[in-house]
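Minutes, structural biology subgroup

Action item carried over from last meeting: produce the structure token record for glucose-6-phosphate isomerase (Bacteroides clarus YIT 12056). EB confirmed the sequence was re-checked against the source entry. Recorded below for completeness.
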Amino acid sequence: MTNSREMPFNPGFEINPTFSPMGFEYGNDVFGPKVENRMLNDIRKSLMNPTCEGPEIVYSIAMDVGKKEHKALLEKMHLLYGVVTYAAGRLGDEPIRSQGHIHKVSPYSGWSTPEVYEIWSGEAIIYMQEYAEDHPGRCFAVYAKAGEVVIVPPYWAHATISANPELPLTFGAWCDREYGFVYDGVRAHGGIAWFPVFNSENKIEWRANSQYQTSELICKTPNDYSALGIEAGKSIYEIFEKDPDTFLYVPSPQLREDVWKNFIP
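Output recorded by EB:
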């Protein structure tokens, strides 16, 4: 695997990100699709500087991966595991990041669905805001390192940001099998409510997007998600393998409606 890179965190199944071209190599007992690439031109309208320079391929996505022995079970449970790897570098003065979206309302549950992120390598910021409307509501920037988990609740707009331009970022996530992304609100406001920007010391600062009403950004580390089945030091795939019902709230968020009220990530 000369084209793959070692990861500091073991996700619980055999998979390695590659860098030339960007993508993933799967172990013999692992299934997974050919990656989809997100190009810089795809996300320009949601950047603070839409004319910036950066990697042509910003990130690569493989939706629906896992151990072959679990494939039928995952389909039955309406659960899907997705993996993403980001290029190193930056987008002008901004970090490599996604443009921001809300999960569509799933025909399966009638809800916009949550997402359970797990960072494998690099340094991430999971940015989220309650709404993609003129007033974004509560806004959080959750800083996470390899092995840490961040959960995005139903209906929230969110974006994934690579906090270290020297390192590629790779992560996995539990998603609803009928996933879909709604970009309209974020794009109508020219991006998320707070833009991450590198300062002269290569540290991220936040600048308010003037197309939204005034809001406050809370920067923090990941919350304790033990109420949602997360165990420190154990990968989210291993948790699923031990007890598949743990993540039923992903395709069926109404099962944990109590947790989503006043949720703090």
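Discussion: The chain has one domain: 15-260.
Next step: EB to file the record with the rest of the batch.
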